[in-house]
């Protein structure tokens, strides 16, 4: 009966929230986002892409209004919403300019077609996906369970395997799979899964035990290994930084973080030295060239080393690996404060080098505004992290905002020459349906977490572990231990006794006395 009453009251409650949202419209900063569309439209008109932006304006305005109403309904953080909508507006402006340039170069491709249709569809899918995932998170408490962590990890591994086996290599990277006419960048989904896997391991108990921390290391290493096999080192760097951020924030023992950081630094050093030596041996012996393991090592080492070499000296290969950075620097110089009509033909301008493209087309003013918005969003996300009482929601919020900010920082620094290029996208600014969808979902989840979530993620009782008793993993471990105990090991016992300083083995003294 209570469930029937709740369902009958749901439409009334929804209508009341919508009326409350519109009542406070004149006091809401979202109104400013709508008003900003006027000067932005005028600016895009000056770049020759005004008609395309007008086609996008209906979808963009609908997303702004709908997201504002939904945010008000869940009492979410409006500042994060406004920052996201501003980024989306700048991204829409830049994408419309790109479409106009493509129409000039290839008019036959767009003959008789609406050039903005594809972008409109991406926005609608991204917004619908964000609403759906946010609604699931808002109402489904089992997402914090260890069963959900196992499922997410299994799905992540399955997606990675399918990508490795069936995806075509694009620029030496396997991260796209095609389903019919739809292309999906699987590593974008991996980022989202990793946040929830980490939150389920470290955020459901007041203090994660050693078993949880050990499992966190194992699962992170497995997901990192798949990224290495896919040659997706940009996403690998992103996940490593999030890994250390989670370790620093949610594992109370500082020594664990310091030991892990030291071990990782040592591993990187060994990897660099080993890669250099194996490269020398591969130049002399065909064995190192034909062996699969050495192939993977050489490929990874060569790709990473070349990024650093041509980042420091792009002029060494101006028509090859250094070409992107040279063109990016040229775009930044030409851009000025408000952009230029002299357009440099940037490679991968819609993804890797989208920030220099933004500087050239729209000027340094918009580029600095984008970076400032990401900083403000990060500060608001950290404020949310500090204020959130429930540890699980706190962990999810920290993971989402760190992921967004670190991703933006890496791509901005890489494309402006402050660090090597990584190939990841700039949230809401770069083109691409998968990237846009995940960016929408991350912000939708952040707003949901900031509101009144209906369930508690932190568990007061003893929580279930990832490798539960009776699982295949546990049974294998028990079998190996039993096999070890069944073997006599007579040739090892004298040595083991000397290592223990001559102490008798457990139970040996009692046996001798009998």
Topology at a glance:
Elements: H1 2-23, H2 30-46, H3 50-73, H4 78-105, H5 117-139, H6 146-166, E1 176-179, E2 182-185, H7 186-202, H8 210-229, H9 233-250, H10 254-284, H11 287-290, H12 292-312, H13 323-335, H14 354-362, H15 364-387, H16 391-415, H17 433-450, H18 472-486, H19 493-499, H20 508-513
Antiparallel strand pairs: 1-2
Helix pairs in contact: 1-3, 2-3, 2-4, 3-4, 3-5, 4-15, 5-17, 6-7, 6-8, 7-8, 7-9, 7-16, 7-17, 8-9, 9-16, 10-12, 13-14, 14-15, 15-16, 16-17
How would you concisely characterize the structure shown here?
The protein has a domain at 121-252 and 313-476.
Can you tell me about this structure?
The chain has a domain at 121-252 and 313-476. The protein has helices spanning 2-23, 30-46, 50-73, 78-105, 117-139, 146-166, 186-202, 210-229, 233-250, 254-284, 287-290, 292-312, 323-335, 354-362, 364-387, 391-415, 433-450, 472-486, 493-499, 508-513, and strands spanning 176-179, 182-185. It is 71% helix and 2% strand. It has 514 residues and is an all-alpha fold. A two-stranded antiparallel ribbon has the order 1-2.
Give a count of the beta strands, DSSP E runs of length 2 or more: 2
Q: What are the low-pLDDT stretches, counting only 5+ consecutive residues below 50?
A: 1-9, 488-514
Number of helices: 20
Write down the overall mean pLDDT: 79
List keywords for this structure.
mainly alpha, 514 residues, disordered N terminus, two-stranded antiparallel ribbon
């Amino acid at each position: 009966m209570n469930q029937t009453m709740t369902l009958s009251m749901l439409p009334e409650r929804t209508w009341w929230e919508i009326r409350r949202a519109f009542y406070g419209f004149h006091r809401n900063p979202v109104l400013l986002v709508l008003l900003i569309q006027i000067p932005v439209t005028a600016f895009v008109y000056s770049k020759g892409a005004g008609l395309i932006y007008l086609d996008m304006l209906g979808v963009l305005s609908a997303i702004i209004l709908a997201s504002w109403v939904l945010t008000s309904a869940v009492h979410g953080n409006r500042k994060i919403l406004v920052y996201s909508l501003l980024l989306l507006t700048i991204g829409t402006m830049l994408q419309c300019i790109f479409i106009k340039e493509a129409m000039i170069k290839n008019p036959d491709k767009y003959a008789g077609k609406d050039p903005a249709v594809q972008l409109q569809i991406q926005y609608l899918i991204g917004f619908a996906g964000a609403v759906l995932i946010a609604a699931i998170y808002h109402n489904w408490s089992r997402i914090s369970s260890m069963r959900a962590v196992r499922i997410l990890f299994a799905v992540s591994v399955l997606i990675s395997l399918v990508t490795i086996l069936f995806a075509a290599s694009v620029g030496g990277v396997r991260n796209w799979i095609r389903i019919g006419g739809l292309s999906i960048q699987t590593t974008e989904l991996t980022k989202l899964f990793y946040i929830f896997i980490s939150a389920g391991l470290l955020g459901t108990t007041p203090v994660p035990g050693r078993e949880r921390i050990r499992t966190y290391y194992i699962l992170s290493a497995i997901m990192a290994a798949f990224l290495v096999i896919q040659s997706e080192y940009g996403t690998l760097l992103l996940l490593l930084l999030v890994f250390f951020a989670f370790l620093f924030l949610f594992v109370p023992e500082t020594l664990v973080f310091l030991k892990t950081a030291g071990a990782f630094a040592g591993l990187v050093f060994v990897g660099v030295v080993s890669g250099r030596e194996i490269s020398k041996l591969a130049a002399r012996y065909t064995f190192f060239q034909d062996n699969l393991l050495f192939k993977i090592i050489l490929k990874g080492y060569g790709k990473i080393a070349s990024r650093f070499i041509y980042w420091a000296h792009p002029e060494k290969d101006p028509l090859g690996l250094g070409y992107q950075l040279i063109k990016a620097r040229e775009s930044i110089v030409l851009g000025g404060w408000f952009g230029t009509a002299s357009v440099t033909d940037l490679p991968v301008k819609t993804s890797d080098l989208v920030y220099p493209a933004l500087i050239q087309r729209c000027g340094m003013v918009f580029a600095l505004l984008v970076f400032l918005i990401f900083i403000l969003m990060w500060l608001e996300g950290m404020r949310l992290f500090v204020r959130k009482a429930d540890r699980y929601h706190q962990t999810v919020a920290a993971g989402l905002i760190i992921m967004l900010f670190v991703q933006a920082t890496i791509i901005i620094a890489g494309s402006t020459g402050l660090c090597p290029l990584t190939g990841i996208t700039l949230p809401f600014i770069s083109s691409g349906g998968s990237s846009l969808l995940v960016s929408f979902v991350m912000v939708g989840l952040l707003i949901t977490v900031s509101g009144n979530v209906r369930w508690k993620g932190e568990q007061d009782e003893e929580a279930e572990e990832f490798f539960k008793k009776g699982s295949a993993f546990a049974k294998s471990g028990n079998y190996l231990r039993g096999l070890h105990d069944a073997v006599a090991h007579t040739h090892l016992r004298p040595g083991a006794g000397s290592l223990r300083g001559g102490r008798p083995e457990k139970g040996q003294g009692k046996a001798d006395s009998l």
